[in-house]
């Protein structure tokens, strides 16, 4: 489905508004249909930040309906339902405390009610819940809707790699773009300047999502190499775990830089081996690539928990509970998916960094084994 089809029943209000837009990254859509209804599926740390951006942007654009629905996995916080707190206090006190959400962001605990009339669906749940969510909404989402996945993670299918966007496409039967970048939620919420990348197989759809999400402090570039954008978002979390392990036994910045470089090489090689479509090196130079890798290896929860794992000897599960207050860790899960995909193809020795991170997280291999793994990396042979 193209956004031009979505916008077919134009009411022409936008034309008279005469908005100036950049020619290169302009969707070219000046004519507006019924305002497009947006639903955010998920309300964790990142989903809440994105609701802040979208809620504020739609107020100024007639192309989008003024109310933004946000599906909230209901839980009770200090004796009150989280949806009630969000709708009356306009703050997600559990996942984004200290930031006011716009009043036009309306939280709902019913997934089916949230998505039933949506034109644009922004998927922002942790990736372990995406299959269940898609099963529940598959017959409810309008077939003309467009999706945008913010979910960083991958899955395994019969042919090897399965992207989260593939799962949404297959189950919900809509076009899906992705948004990935060097975007640590707390920093974006504080309106610190950053960039992000939208990958879209249908450029026009990516440009529509750019209009929905771009702000002066959150700059969006759209590329068509969508699978690579998505893969970068997932794989960098494995590298960030590797850097966290190094921090745990007090490696210096030079060693960390080595992990980042070798990690990037493995990300590119993994993309070239497993992506069905073209994998452009240029995509790794977008915000979704090097920038997200660097920000996750210095900030971010995967690095932080991996460091604590190396220092304390507690399990990943214990640390996730202790340190993240309900937030989910993506790196260990993604490393397990990647490990299975590589093992099936007999390629573990070509990806020693990904492999050692998996073995440290899941098989009790010593954290100090990171160093011999780097020393014997095929890059140096
Ligand atoms: N936080 C960031 O800085 C950031 C930045 C960019 C992208 N992302 C990506 O966004 C996605 C969402 O991450 P997040 O940080 O917003 O989430 P989070 O880890 O902060 O929150 C966990 C969410 O999972 C929900 N949940 C718990 N149990 C559930 C269940 N059984 N079914 C459905 N939902 C359940 C919780 O209600 C909560 O909304 C991830 O893929 C992440 O990689 C995060």
Overall description:
The chain is of the alpha/beta class. It has helices spanning 3-6, 13-17, 45-58, 82-89, 111-115, 130-137, 164-172, 185-189, 203-213, 226-248, 253-274, 287-298, 301-312, 316-324, 331-344, 352-362, 370-375; strands at residues 36-41, 64-71, 76-77, 80-81, 105-108, 120-123, 146-149, 154-157, 160-163, 175-180, 194-199, 218-223. An eight-stranded mixed beta sheet has the order 5-2-1-6-7-10-11-12, sandwiched between helices. Strands 3-4 form a two-stranded antiparallel sheet. Strands 8-9 form a two-stranded antiparallel ribbon. β3 (76-77) and β4 (80-81) form a beta hairpin. α10 runs parallel beside α12 (287-298), α10 (226-248) crosses α15 and α15 (331-344) crosses α16. The protein is globular and about 60 Å long. 48% of the residues are buried. Residues 7-24 have low confidence and may be disordered. Nicotinamide-adenine-dinucleotide is lined by residues 42-47, 73, 95, 124-127, 129, 150-153, 183-185, 326-328, 330. It catalyses: sn-glycerol 3-phosphate + NAD(+) = dihydroxyacetone phosphate + NADH + H(+). NAD(+) binds at residues 42-47, 73, 129, 185, 301, 328, 330.
């Amino acid at each position: 489905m193209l956004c031009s089809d979505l916008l077919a029943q134009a009411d022409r209000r936008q034309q008279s508004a005469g908005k100036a837009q950049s020619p290169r990254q302009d969707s070219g859509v000046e004519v507006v249909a019924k305002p497009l209804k947006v639903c955010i599926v998920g309300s964790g740390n990142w989903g809440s930040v994105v609701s802040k951006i979208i809620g504020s942007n739609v107020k100024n654009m007639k192309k989008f309906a003024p109310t933004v629905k946000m599906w909230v996995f209901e839980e009770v916080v200090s004796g009150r339902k989280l949806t009630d707190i969000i709708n009356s206090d306009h703050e997600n006190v559990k996942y984004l405390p200290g930031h006011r959400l716009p009043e036009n962001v309306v939280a709902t605990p019913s997934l089916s009610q949230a998505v039933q009339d949506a034109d644009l669906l922004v998927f922002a749940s942790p990736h372990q819940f995406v299959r269940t969510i898609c099963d529940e909404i598959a017959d409810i989402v309008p077939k003309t809707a467009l999706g945008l996945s913010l979910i960083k993670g991958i899955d395994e299918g019969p042919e090897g790699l399965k992207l989260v966007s593939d799962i949404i496409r297959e189950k919900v039967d809509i076009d899906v773009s992705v948004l990935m970048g060097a975007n640590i939620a707390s920093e974006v919420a504080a309106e610190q300047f950053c960039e992000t990348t939208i990958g879209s197989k249908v450029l026009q759809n990516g440009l529509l999502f750019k209009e929905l999400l771009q702000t002066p402090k959150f700059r969006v570039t759209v590329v068509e190499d969508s699978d690579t954008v998505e893969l970068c978002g997932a794989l960098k979390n494995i590298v960030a775990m590797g850097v966290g392990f190094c921090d745990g036994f007090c490696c210096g910045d030079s060693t960390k830089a080595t992990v980042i470089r070798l990690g990037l090489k493995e990300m590119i090689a993994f993309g070239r081996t497993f992506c069905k479509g073209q994998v452009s090196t240029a995509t790794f130079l977008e915000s979704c690539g090097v920038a997200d890798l660097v920000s996750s290896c210095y900030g971010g929860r995967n690095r932080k928990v991996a460091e604590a794992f190396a220092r304390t000897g507690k399990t990943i599960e214990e640390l996730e509970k202790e340190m993240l207050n309900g937030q989910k860790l993506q790196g260990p899960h993604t490393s397990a998916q990647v490990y299975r995909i590589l093992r099936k193809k007999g390629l573990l020795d070509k990806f020693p960094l990904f492999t050692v991170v998996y073995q440290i997280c899941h098989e009790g291999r010593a954290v100090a084994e990171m160093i011999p793994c780097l020393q014997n990396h095929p890059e140096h042979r």
